[in-house]
């Protein structure tokens, strides 16, 4: 088939499934597969956290590790087949495609679609991005963002990804975490303030996520 020995061909069955399940066309899927194979340095058919952390935009992003950990976590919820145990450290190609499909939705959209359907797709894409962002903050996955989790994210954002130098100290960031929580959650007692996804979504309305949250793979 003209493919080098280092890259196994994408099985026709997988390709057909992905054409059904995502909005990507055949050449987009093949492009993603080539990218997936590049990331899969040891060629075992999975990409691991370590392999994903090699992506150039991820290395230089202060939230790179968070993005990848959340990406893997979300991919693995799509990954569950029956009672099969979830392997939290790997992503297979179908999940890789499904995850990117919900991120770069506009790329995979058919041009001849009805406007209505396009709008629904955009809403869906925004929803997926917001959910992803929320899950990045919600480190323990209990569906609430606490002050500790907010503070942890702020510390990460203030840390240089290359030198690991934290430009602003944790003590200095505490008031910012508290203010963010107070703004998003109206609960009167500060120690009871946690943010739900609904509150998070509301606070993000009007913020353009398209520029900030389109990950190029
Ligand atoms: Ca691998
Ligand atoms: Ca939480």
Describe how the helices and strands are arranged.
Layout: H1 12-21, H2 26-39, E1 47-48, H3 49-52, H4 56-59, H5 64-79, E2 90-91, H6 93-103, H7 105-108, H8 115-137, H9 147-157, H10 170-184, H11 197-203, H12 209-212
Antiparallel strand pairs: 1-2
Bound molecules: calcium ion (2 copies).
Question: Can you put this structure into words, describing what you see?
Answer:
The structure is a single chain. The protein folds into 2 domains: 127 residues, Recoverin, domain 1; 62 residues, no CATH class. About 4% of the residues have low confidence. The chain has a two-stranded antiparallel ribbon with strand order 1-2. Helices cover 57% and strands 2% of the residues. The relative contact order is 0.11. The two termini are 25 Å apart. It has 12 helices and 2 strands; from the N terminus they run H-H-E-H-H-H-E-H-H-H-H-H-H-H. The chain has 217 residues and is an all-alpha fold. Bound molecules: calcium ion (2 copies).
Could you name the key traits of this structure?
binds calcium ion; mainly alpha; 217 residues; Recoverin, domain 1; two-stranded antiparallel ribbon; 57% helix; single chain
């Amino acid at each position: 088939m003209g493919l080098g020995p280092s890259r196994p061909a994408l099985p026709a069955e997988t390709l057909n499934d992905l054409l059904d399940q995502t909005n990507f066309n055949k050449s987009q899927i093949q492009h993603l597969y080539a990218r997936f194979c590049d990331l899969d340095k040891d060629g075992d058919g999975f990409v691991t956290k370590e392999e994903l952390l090699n992506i150039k935009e991820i290395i230089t992003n202060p939230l790179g590790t968070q993005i990848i950990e959340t990406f893997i976590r979300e991919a693995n919820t799509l990954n569950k087949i029956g009672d099969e145990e979830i392997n939290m450290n790997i992503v297979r190609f179908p999940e890789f495609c499904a995850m990117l499909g919900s991120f770069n939705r506009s790329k995979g959209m058919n041009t001849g679609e009805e406007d209505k359907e396009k709008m629904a797709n955009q809403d869906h894409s925004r929803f997926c991005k917001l959910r992803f962002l929320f899950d990045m903050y919600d480190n323990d996955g209990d569906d609430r963002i606490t002050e500790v989790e907010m503070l942890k994210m702020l510390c990460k954002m203030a840390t240089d990804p290359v030198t690991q130098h934290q430009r602003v100290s944790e003590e200095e960031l505490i008031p910012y975490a508290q203010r963010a929580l107070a703004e998003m959650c109206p609960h009167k007692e500060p120690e009871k303030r946690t943010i739900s996804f609904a509150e998070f979504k509301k606070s993000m309305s009007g913020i353009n996520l398209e520029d900030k949250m389109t990950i190029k793979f």
